[in-house]
């Protein structure tokens, strides 16, 4: 089941933000959460719902509720003049909704805020939920980028993950998206699935690269509490994932993707050019502002972070009553924001400024350089940039640097 929301202080009924949070100069983005899936994958703890879990609401009404939240955002942000730089529609499976509904949501953002010139507009898609006509309509609605969940090219790996698409379909989707006019296409991969071999992983990378996307995301499988996969592992039906295998698979990914012309720009993301990078995710990693619309979506504006109620029914009810769907929020201190900058920026190929580090963290950075975890050249220029070995140990490096 989906993970629990964090604790927090109450959100005002009208969603109002403190005056000091308004009027920022940072880029502004929108995340739109579509919480519907045809089936629940065994490894997933995202805030998603199948048809049987939608008591009190309908997918048919979702676009209207989402538009109501976009209009609420306009009221909360008052006369903020910033146009929206990026929109990312995620889930769930956004493409279970009609393309016209996704276009209606995007249209509300365009009408209320305006889109910046060259704005990036992405949607995630399940390979089995789209066809050439659907992709063509998405492009006509204004979407500029599409991200397909491939996960693996091996049927037995997909079976462990409870993925419903067939091998080969994601690669076909890339060609269909290109034909529809999408310049930027991403494939998501997962490595470290129980029963996956190095050869399986190499085959998945070969298939992904051969499909011709300009962006690949590769994530280590995380066994989340409360998921079907966790229960299967505890029953001994499949083996537990192994950290050493994860490291080996990451090295394989770096080798094969680099050889194919991809360059890492975040620990789990590779792109063929700077233009192919996911600009929306870069907003998250660099501390910009974004409004998260939809059940369970998280937002950040001017040092205020908040999150919505999780289920689509109370989400829609709150908006219909003229109230925020916000379930809680937190006000980030200057120290919170400093630590978060280190946590996020260190994962980027550009790294983070050494000037952000406290004395203990600065000393740890010097040791990390000496141990080959941070690049010596950027360090000499005042930045902490992970080496390849450092990327394998990124979480440990971060822990040392935030001390």
Q: In words, what does this structure look like?
A:
The chain has 403 residues and is α/β, with parallel strands linked by helices. The chain has 15 helices and 14 strands. The protein has helices at 62-76, 99-113, 132-141, 155-161, 169-180, 198-211, 228-234, 243-259, 279-285, 312-320, 334-345, 359-370, 376-380, 388-392, 394-401, and strands at 28-34, 84-91, 115-125, 145-151, 184-191, 215-220, 263-266, 269-271, 289-293, 298-301, 304-308, 326-331, 352-353, 383-384. The strands form three sheets. A nine-stranded mixed sheet has the order 7-8-6-5-4-3-2-1-9, with helices on both faces. A three-stranded antiparallel sheet has the order 10-11-12, with no helix packed on it. α1 (62-76) crosses α10, α2 (99-113) packs parallel to α3 (132-141) and α6 packs parallel to α8 (243-259). It is globular, with a radius of gyration of 21 Å. The mean pLDDT is 93.
Write a brief structural summary:
The chain is α/β, with parallel strands linked by helices and 403 residues long.
> What is the helical fraction, as a range of percent?
25-40%
Overall geometry: globular
Terminal-residue CA separation: 34 Å
Topology order in helix (H) and strand (E) letters = EHEHEHEHHEHEHHEEHEEEHEHEHHEHH
Number of strands: 14
How is the main sheet built?
A: 9 strands, mixed
Question: What is Rg?
Answer: 21 Å
Our count of helices gives 15
Average of pLDDT? 93
Kindly estimate the percentage of residues that lie in beta strands according to DSSP. 15-25%
Residue runs with pLDDT of under 50 for 5 or more positions: none
The helix-and-strand class reads: alpha/beta
Strand order of the largest sheet: 7-8-6-5-4-3-2-1-9
